Amino acid sequence: MIKKLKLLLIFIVILSLGFLYLEVTYFSINRLKVRNIEIIDAKIPYDFEGAKILVFSDSYGNESQLKKVQELVLNENPDFIIFLGNLLDEETVETEIIENTLKSMEAPLGKYAILGNDGTHYDLEKLKTIYNNAGFRFIDNQILPMHRYTDSYINFALFDNKSASFDEMFSFLSTDTFTLIFNHSPEIINSLEDAYSVFSGETLKGQVNLPLLGSLFYKDNITTDIITQNGAKLYLSGGIGTPKPRIRFKANPDILLITLKSS
Q1: pTM above threshold 0.90
Q2: Is 223 left (phi over 0), alpha (psi -120 to 50) or beta?
Q3: Which end of the chain has the lower number of beta carbons within 10 A, N or C?
């Protein structure tokens, strides 16, 4: 009887370890959840009531995950699409499928991309060419007025990764105009002192999060879905791809689907 119990226990342990291995190396990295975010603000013009903004980040050359984004775009018909950087990784050689997938994503009011860490290990001009051919406007530290078929507008502030010019850029922001801030690094929230909504990627929500220990790869970084600091509210994208080592745990890939509401 005791021998049978030992064998059963060994079987359960082996089965659990096998499931954990599959969860970390396959299931977690191939999930893709949609986080619906509703932003309500009196400064949002009535013309932007119900406007949708699809935000995603950190694809790391994962073609199958990009195809899922493509399908979501087809189903949700967003007005704007924002990509927060890290399109490719250092192993990406063939980019035609990635470029064509991005090109097929339609957003009537514009598609925009900012630089992530991939600018440090991939030719920047080639990245810009991919975005340009795919119909994405590559933005490097600009505040752009966005219209929705009328003269009313909101601002999109798009900053590149860890920009050194935050203070200068913020001096051009008016608190009277509704503004959304997009930056690859979530550390931008440490530079904000007003009630902005901020969207960032980079840290993959920790990538691998262990009980009590926290994130293995982003120990000293922001890895929480939503944080509020000095009045600003940060929404962190979990990214859609996974860099090496291609493992995740308690940090699912996701897409942010934002809907604007005027109060």
Answers
A1: yes
A2: alpha
A3: N
